[in-house]
Amino acid sequence: MNRFFARSLALLVVAASVAACSHMRADAGWTTLVGGPDTLQNWDRLGDANWRMEDGLLVADKASVASYLVTKNSYKDFQIRAEFWADHTTNSGIFMRIADPKKVAATNSYEVNIYDQRPDPSYGTGAIVDFAKVSPMPKAGGKWNTFLITAKGTNLIVEMNGVQTVNIQDSKFASGPFALQFANGPQGAPGGIIKWRKVQISAL
Question: What is the model's pTM?
Answer without folding.
Answer: 0.87
